[in-house]
Write a structure and sequence with these properties.
By secondary structure, the chain is mainly alpha-helical. The protein has six helices and two strands; from the N terminus they run ααααααββ. Helix 1 (5-14) packs antiparallel against helix 2 (18-26), helix 2 (18-26) packs across helix 3 and helix 4 crosses helix 5 (77-94). It is elongated and about 50 Å long. The mean pLDDT is 83.
Amino acid sequence: VWNNRQKYRGGYYKNTCVVSRVSYLVSLPHIGKITAQHLARNLGCDIVKYDIWIQRLAVVWSGKDMAGKINNQKLHPDIKSVCDEMFDYLVLETGLPRGYIDVVLWKACQVGLIPLHGRGAERNEAGRVIKPQNPPRRPRGATPPKEGNL
């Protein structure tokens, strides 16, 4: 891989749309679909990587009983659909790119700032979580970010 890095880089940037770039990455040695999406996001594409944390969060957010469909090896179409709905909503509400939202949500889930069980959470009419049972707290001594430093 290292010896062919310039060829791989050129092949990636030769593609102009996100779908073709991700397809190209999947064709590389040792790169699967989720890793390709992760890599594309890290290379600047406005894309969601459907990792286990994002899948779990989207299921809780959706309010649907589909936790049994979560699979980090093979993304279920229903799980992809709720992930995409969640990100469409968050992009619309925040104006932030998918890739930025993805990395923030992933880290918040990974370190436990967002509870993924959903029990006792406040939900809207569609059953989606709008307020977790135990909202995350800022670590002791941490200050909130200054305006514009997100």
